[in-house]
Every structure is written in C-alpha cells, then in structure tokens.
Design brief:
Helix 2 (46-58) runs parallel beside helix 4 (86-97). With 293 residues, the chain is an alpha/beta fold. The chain has a single domain (3-292), classed as Metallo-dependent phosphatases (Purple Acid Phosphatase, chain A, domain 2). The protein contains 7 helices and 14 strands. Strands 7-4-3-2-12-13-14 form a 7-stranded mixed β-sheet. The chain has a 5-stranded mixed β-sheet with strand order 1-8-9-10-11. A two-stranded antiparallel ribbon has the order 5-6. It has helices spanning 3-9, 46-58, 78-84, 86-97, 117-121, 173-188, 202-219, and strands spanning 15-18, 24-28, 62-66, 101-104, 124-127, 132-135, 142-143, 146-149, 157-159, 222-225, 240-242, 252-258, 261-271, 277-289.
Length: 293
C-alpha cells in the first residue's frame, strides 16, 4: 500500500461540510496537549491558543482540528490531559455545543478512531469554574478526513492529518508509538530528537510534503494537512497547504477560510505602545482565493 493510496483512503467515508461565501472555518493541528510535565510542548502556548479560540468563537468560525490534538503516544491517559488543560477543553466544548467543532485523528491520537473512545473519554470534563462535571464532546465522531464541499463551483477542499504520507507513522504507528513512549520520551528530556517525527526529522518532513503535494496535484484538489509542523501556503500550481502547529516557540499557526479565501495566520505575543503584552494575529504570505484553483 503506497502513500498515495493511503492519502486517498483517508477520504473514504469522510465528513462532508458545506463551503460557500458564508463559510467561516479555522483549522488548527498538532496541539499535542499533554499532562503538564516537562515534555508538554503545548503548555507554553496555551494562553495564545485560548486567545485565538475566543476570537474565532466570537467571530462565528467553525473549528476544525486536524489531528494530534492530544499527545496520546507519550501519555496513556486522556483524563490526565483534560485535567491539565480545563480551559482549553471548556472552549472546545462551547464550539461543539454550537455545532461548530469537527475533529480528525492523527498518528499521535490515532486511538480516537476506536468506536468506543468517544463514549468512554469524551462525554464530560471537570469545569473548574463551576466545580462540576459538564458535557465535553458527547456523541462526537473522529474522522480520518474532512471534505469541504463546494456545490456551486466544485472547488472542494480536502483535509486530513497528513501522516498517511509517512509509512512509519501510518502503517507502522504501533511500533513508532512504542519507541516514542518508552525510548525517545525520556531521551527528549536530554535534548535527543525523535527520529520517527516528521516535524523533527528534516528528511522525513521533506518526503512527506513532497508526497502530499504530488497527491494534491495529481487529483487536482486543494489539500490541507498538519503533521509536519511546517506552515505552508499553497499556490495555483501547487495546491498543498499546511496548518503548522501550536507548539512552536515563536507562536501558534492556523489556517482560516473565509469569503472563499484561504489565509495562514500566526498568533504570537506582541507589545503595544504602552508596553503591554497581548496576543496578536498576523497573516503570513498571500491570501489565496479558492476560485483561482
């Protein structure tokens, strides 16, 4: 089974959502929410993430999470992750409550594809503000892919995590998880990079991006993924986009789709004229009109 087949297979029985001039989507990937220990790479950017989510909730965006939202290779317990990041899960639950949250599983949270994961783990979370259990994502489904269907101009957008382009992180994911959980996790604390990671291994990252780009060109589809943590904006001749991640030291990145245009946004700490620190957004690269594809 080659990479192109695995990528195509991700869109079998995909979740289909509408794409038109009224559609407003924000796409995050690779949050890698952890348990608050030294290897919880999300922790340092959580306030930026909360600021961004509040902005998008107020602006009526639908939140699409493209996999690796939770770090379930290094950590066994989803409950521990929920307890460590209650504010983030509270905000995500609000999106879900209003029918504006959809999620794809990645390689690091591939256990979410199990039919009983939602029933077992996603019903409730503990709200620290009200000191009680509240609904989290009751009856949620985690997908391998999402398709934004454009009924008018047939400019559909395909979204998946992107690990399908990497044999080691897709087909051999149990072996990769074993190495990450029991070998590379302790070594990471000593500064040794994980060789299974497309985000940290430049050669693996480049090969994955080449395969994803080739798939998008061959099928004449706009393709948006995460996985490599490398934010990318596509072009008319190369319709491959990447959300980046929420664990970069310089901030978090995401993709916005609004008014039939695609933008790559970065949220980072900024300082205003009064020397006050705030979470600010900037647009990276060009905004791309979907109708030009």
């Amino acid at each position: 089974m080659n990479a192109y087949y695995r990528i195509s297979k991700a869109f079998t029985n995909a979740c289909c959502l509408p794409l038109d001039t009224c559609s407003k989507y924000v796409i995050f990937s690779d949050c890698h929410r952890g348990t608050g220990k030294a290897n919880d790479n999300f922790l340092k950017n959580e306030l930026l993430y909360l600021a961004a989510l509040k902005h998008y909730f107020q602006k009526d965006f639908t939140y699409l999470e493209l996999g690796d939202g939770d770090e379930l290779w290094e950590n066994r317990s989803f409950e521990d992750i929920k307890q460590m990041h209650p504010d983030s899960f509270e905000l995500m639950s609000k999106f879900h409550q209003y029918g504006r949250f959809y999620a794809v599983y990645g390689n690091h949270d591939i256990v979410k594809k199990r039919t009983n994961f939602s029933e077992k783990c996603c019903r409730n979370y503990y709200c620290e503000h009200e000191l009680c259990q509240k609904p989290l994502f009751p009856y949620i489904a985690f997908y391998s892919g999402i398709i934004l269907k454009d009924k008018e101009k047939k400019k559909d957008i395909y979204l998946t995590h992107g690990h399908q382009a990497d044999f080691l992180n897709c087909t051999l994911w149990p072996l990769s998880r074993f190495f990450v959980r029991y070998i590379w996790r302790p070594l990471e604390l000593l500064g040794v990079p994980d060789p299974t990671s497309a985000a940290k291994n430049h050669r693996r990252k480049k090969k994955s991006e080449q395969r994803l780009t080739a798939w998008a060109k061959e099928h004449h589809h706009i393709l948006i993924t995460g996985h490599t943590h490398h934010p990318m904006i596509g072009t008319a001749s190369s319709p491959y986009f990447n959300t980046g991640s929420c664990i970069s030291p310089s901030g978090i990145t995401c993709i916005e789709i609004e008014n039939r245009c695609i933008s790559l946004a970065k949220w980072s700490l900024k300082i205003d004229n009064n020397q006050a620190v705030y979470a600010g957004k900037s647009v990276l690269g060009n905004t791309i009109c979907i109708d030009n594809y």
